[in-house]
Design brief:
Helix content: 40-55%
Shape: globular
Strand order of the largest sheet: 5-4-1-6-7
Number of strands: 7
Mean pLDDT: 74
Length: 295
């Protein structure tokens, strides 16, 4: 007997970070989370995502709520993003909503595709069937990416994306700095996530991301560079970073970007694949486990 066999719908909250504080006194502080540099200041939005998922599930009595996200940071140990979100919802007593009895976690996802795909598998495992309808909560600028994932998985006709995080809690329009941050996030979303998934929908192969060029060498052709300079280009080409910022910094044109991209193609250099990036977010793939394997 499946524990939630009567449930028919699925609400997913995609995780973004891991909560590591030993208490819940300052859940909005960066110090309570393991964050990448570009995630600083985002903690209030994580709580917004959690609460949104809880409220969506409360409005659907036949829905299972899943927090999705794996053990993506070695420094966090065995804690997962999904676990973190569940504990915060529990701490805030589910904001008065009665959904705790139909909430669980999916603790293996390393990226957005796995957030959706693994949550569908988790629903199948605990409910004994596929969900009739799926809602997913994440950053608003990731809408196109998740809709692409839904098409890849064949659920686009029963999928709804809920975008959060583009206005503050007062409902006011973002200020100039927030607009700039959102523009940068949207640019990075297209270059570093959407385009790779368009070329490799399930993130299984080696993908060259043609617009991910953090360093654009102004008027130089790659073939004419000295070996040491070529190595520098290759190192910087593999690093993450918004295209626009580097393009402005190096006063490069789109034509020059294409020149460098084509040269890198011919040189056989490839930017890290989606599979590579997943490995970077999986402590078990990055190195030996501190625990002996189970027989």
């Amino acid at each position: 007997m499946h524990p939630w066999s009567t449930l028919r719908e699925l609400v997913i909250v995609a995780g973004h970070a891991i909560y590591v504080a030993p208490h819940f006194q300052r859940p909005l502080d960066d110090s309570s989370w393991v964050l990448a540099p570009h995630q600083r200041g985002e903690a209030p939005h994580y709580l917004e995502h959690i609460r949104c998922g809880v409220e969506l599930a409360a409005a659907r009595p036949s829905a299972l709520l899943l927090f999705s996200g794996g053990q993506t940071r070695r420094s966090a140990g065995p804690r997962s993003e999904a676990q973190s979100y569940w504990m915060l919802a529990e701490h805030f007593q589910w904001w008065g909503q009665d959904v705790a009895e139909r909430c669980s976690t999916e603790e293996f996802a390393r990226d957005s595709f796995e957030n959706l795909a693994f949550s569908l598998q988790r629903f199948q495992a605990v409910c004994g069937k596929a969900p009739q309808f799926v809602e997913l909560v994440s950053w608003a600028f990731k809408q196109e990416r998740f809709q692409h994932h839904a098409r890849t998985l064949g659920i686009e006709n029963r999928f709804r994306f809920i975008g959060q995080g583009q206005v503050d809690g007062t409902g006011q329009a973002p200020n100039q700095q927030e607009v700039a941050q959102l523009a940068e996030a949207c640019l990075g979303e297209v270059e570093l996530a959407l385009e790779p998934f368009l070329r490799d929908p399930r993130g299984e192969g080696q993908v060259l991301r043609p617009t991910e060029l953090p360093l654009l060498i102004a008027a130089q052709r790659f073939e004419k560079l000295e070996p040491a300079a070529k190595q520098q280009v290759q190192r910087l080409y593999a690093a993450d970073g918004p295209l626009g910022a580097w393009q402005l910094q190096h006063n490069a044109t789109e034509s020059q970007a294409r020149t460098l991209r084509d040269a890198l193609h011919r040189a056989g250099y490839r930017s890290p694949s989606l599979a590579d990036k997943r490995a970077e977010r999986d402590p078990f793939l990055r190195g030996p486990s501190p625990h002996p394997p189970c027989d």
